[in-house]
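Quarterly update from the structural biology core.
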Amino acid sequence: MGKHRSRLKILANILSVVSVNNGAKKTQIMYQAYLSYKLLVQYLKDVTEAGLVKCGNENCYVLTQKGEKFLERFDEYSKSRETVEKHLGHIENQKSMLEEMCPNTEVANVDPNNLERNIGRRPE
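Predicted structure, tokenized:
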């Protein structure tokens, strides 16, 4: 299964379709942004009300200056997020290596019967 897209990613996908095609109709946006018709209508309402796109001639949606600025900022955000995720992945790998070097053997050797007797007791 694939990952779910965030709301911002879906908005950026819609705006990208409109931008790349110098305007796009609903069907084109729906297929190229991988949306159901129900979601398309909802998101088109959102981007239109936000002033990111406007409906031009023949029900063709076009990007506004605000929409262009949104795409630029989203691109910056995506690059920053990708960099941070790479760093976090590296940090998690380091943590795993450290844990492998010093495994916690106490947890593996806990007597389950002793745990059941001590549940609910306060430490003395």
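Helices lie at 7-20, 26-32, 37-49, 65-101, 105-108, 112-118.
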